[in-house]
Design goal:
It comes from Acetobacter cerevisiae. 32% of the residues lie in helices and 19% in strands. The chain is of the alpha/beta class. Strand 11, helix 11 and strand 12 (405-409) form a beta-alpha-beta unit. The N and C termini lie far apart (88 Å). The relative contact order is 0.09.
């Protein structure tokens, strides 16, 4: 045991004790009383200083203001067990408008990391290769848009009262998830790219039409939760791919501060923001106030937590600083107080066991389920502890037999932990030691510097042990016992599930495209066509913006505008695309990403070719161009997929041609309305 060789009060009246190491008298520690104990990010414990020279009294620092507490990102994804700093160099983001927000914000907030972005809506076909070589990316982050999965049918809430509507929604949603995931995982399947898949944020309130039906199959919140469960099972069937629970992040921070279903429709599932299209631009009797005057927004906290979630998941999959064993002290660590002092048979009442002790007991079992070994290292009398165990542990949720190694003796703890490492055949760097005593933690850290020590604040211990990336495992193994068998059963069920492949799914859509030739700015469709052209960045072959006058002049000199609407068995999408045609050339092609991936884009090119050739006799070559912009990745291969061939570029603009004796590809599952 450590020996006290001197005790005194400093000028401010605070107790100071000098302790001497029993095995090395030259090693001493100062135990100094705190002036004020306040909640902190770190355990509230006495200040410890290692000294090898004569002890001198140090003035006590003035108490500081109480800290603000843990950030949401640190709370959710603790860094306490991190040793190695891992730099994430490049990330590929694939997803809808929520991912676009990630791309915009994260590249500013984390300049040390490069973020590439590929927009993804509906069953899009990703480019044959991402913006950078696949090998350059640390991982891919995929976010499937909830709106594409549910379709806009759910906006008509009264339809949930229809017989069989919910069943149809779920069946279709499962099929869409299958198809979208299959399309979006090509880099994972072809190149083994580590992939994290975001789940859906569940609406924060029930949407059921009555109190009786809340939580039932007619409640959209329940449906989205089921989709999350299904998505989790599907992702588990892929190699080197893992689901990230974004819904849990939003819930912990508070969906009221994040989710846009306060203003927008339920299935949008994105981050709320001030509606800049309306704010101050349109006169109102009562101006719209800033959103945060009624709904405070925690966008920054959410974005920090999302990135932290990515990084911690990456650390787990790479097994950085992985914990293989956790060693627990007993007194004031596994229970309140000291077993020999506070649990005497003749003295009652004993300390309570509810609260954090019960939380630690449960945490131990969950660590075991992950294949992490647990052990006891305590300075106590073994026989006394063994005989009194069932008295102290109440309810009897944990036993000495649950620990793979038990070291209850008076030997220095560092020595016991070294012996445990030998028994487990692991190195000290794989061990976490949990002890309430700061002197014991310091002694172990001094003798075994690679061992990570925690335990000063019992309110932090459980969260650190269960939520840290270093105590997670990427995949269940045989060592995980029953949990591994459960996962294997889920995977087996997944393999036997009947799903549609991409061609079957597309055929089931019953997709129809109707065309509108815009020949005048007076046509009712003109306003929507202009709006779509000037707002679309992703599927826009040159990024050109048009004014009313520009289009009027374009039509006067023989230009043609081919607009189109799309509908399928799910919904009518409205006017979603515009092609600008002149002579024998497609000069610009703009389409909403809402219908991307249905092969509508190729079907429409065929119609445009037909329209251009109708104005000429004989075989006519049709040309098209693409000017690559930072955002238009989705449309860069559209002409190649439609049957064009690429020729030499001119002034940095890609050139394509469909020879006069060639016909464009025409998807057979789409009909012209």
């Amino acid at each position: 045991m450590w020996r006290s060789i001197e005790a005194f009060k400093d000028p401010e009246g605070l107790l100071t004790i000098v302790l001497e190491h029993p095995g090395n008298p030259d090693t001493r520690f100062i135990l100094k009383q705190h002036a004020i104990i306040v909640p902190d990010d770190t355990p509230a414990s006495p200040v410890i200083k290692q000294v090898t020279a004569p002890v001198e009294t140090q003035p006590t620092a003035q108490p500081s203001a109480p800290p603000a507490g843990l950030s949401d990102a640190e709370f959710l994804f603790p860094s306490d067990l991190e040793v190695t700093n891992v730099k994430v160099g490049k990330v590929l983001l694939v997803g809808s408008c929520l991912t676009a927000l990630y791309h915009e914000q994260l590249q500013t907030r984390h300049p040390e990391t490069t973020f590439d972005y590929i927009p993804y809506n509906f069953v899009s076909v990703l480019p044959e290769a991402p913006p950078s070589p696949v090998s350059d990316y640390d991982f891919q982050y995929l976010q499937i848009p909830l709106r594409s999965v549910l379709s806009d049918r759910v906006i008509w809430g009264f339809r949930f009262n229809e017989e069989g509507f919910t069943k149809t929604i779920l069946q279709d949603a499962y099929s869409i998830i299958d198809a979208m995931l299959s399309s979006a995982m090509i880099y994972n399947e072809r190149h083994g790219l580590l992939t994290f898949v975001s789940n859906f944020i569940v609406p924060q309130m029930s949407t059921a039409s009555s109190m009786y039906e809340r939580g039932s199959n007619n409640d959209l919140a329940t449906i989205v939760q089921r989709l999350n469960d299904y998505l989790n099972e599907k992702v588990a069937g892929y190699k080197n791919a893992y689901l990230l629970n974004v819904d849990a992040v939003a819930s912990t921070i508070g969906k009221r501060y994040i989710l846009d279903d306060l203003v927008y429709f339920y299935s949008h599932g994105a981050v709320t923001y001030q509606d800049w299209d309306d704010f101050g631009s349109i006169a109102r009797n009562e101006p719209i106030p800033p959103l945060e005057t009624v709904y405070p927004v925690k966008k920054d906290a959410f974005l920090d937590a999302i990135f932290r979630q990515m990084v911690t998941a990456y650390r787990t999959t790479k097994q950085v600083d992985q914990v293989k064993a956790v060693v627990f002290d007993l007194d004031n660590t596994l229970w309140r107080g000291q077993i020999a002092e506070h649990y005497r048979p003749e003295a009652q009442p004993w300390p309570r066991t509810d609260g954090w002790p019960l939380g630690i007991w449960e945490a131990i079992h969950y660590l075991r389920a992950r294949g992490i070994l647990v052990a006891i290292c305590s300075k106590n009398d073994y026989d006394y502890v063994k005989n009194r165990w069932d008295d102290v542990i109440e309810p009897k949720l944990i036993s000495l037999d649950d620990f793979s190694s038990v070291k209850i003796n008076w030997i220095p703890k560092a020595q016991n932990i070294s012996e445990i490492c030998k028994e487990f055949n692991i190195k000290p760097k794989s061990v976490v030691f949990v002890d309430d005593n700061p002197v014991e933690r310091a002694a172990v850290a001094s003798a075994l510097p690679d061992v990570r020590v925690i335990g000063g604040n019992p309110y932090l211990t459980r969260r650190i042990l269960l939520w840290s990336a270093e105590t997670q495992i990427a995949r269940m193994t045989e060592e995980s016992g029953k949990r591994e068998e459960m996962i294997r059963g889920q995977i087996e069920r997944e393999e036997t599930r009947s799903t549609m492949d991409r061609s079957e799914f597309l055929a089931s859509l019953h997709c129809e495209v109707s065309f509108i030739n815009i020949t005048s700015t007076d046509q009712p469709e003109f306003g929507r066509a202009l709006e779509l052209t000037n707002k679309t960045n992703q599927f826009n072959t040159n990024g050109q913006r048009w004014s009313f006058e520009n289009i009027a002049d374009f039509l006067k000199v023989g230009g043609k505008i081919l607009a189109f609407k799309v509908k399928d068995k799910f919904t009518e999408y409205g006017l979603v695309g515009v092609l600008y045609l002149k002579g024998t050339e497609i000069t610009q092609y703009v389409m909403s990403c809402r219908v991307l991936g249905m092969e509508v884009e190729e079907f429409v090119v065929a119609e445009a070719v037909k329209l251009l050739r109708s104005a000429h006799t004989g075989e006519t070559d049709i040309t098209a161009t693409i000017k690559e912009t930072p955002d238009n990745t989705p449309c860069r291969e559209v002409y190649l997929r439609a049957g064009f061939r690429e020729i030499a570029p001119q002034d940095g603009v890609r050139q394509f041609i469909l020879d006069g004796d060639e016909v464009p590809m025409l998807p057979l599952h789409i009909k012209k309305a």
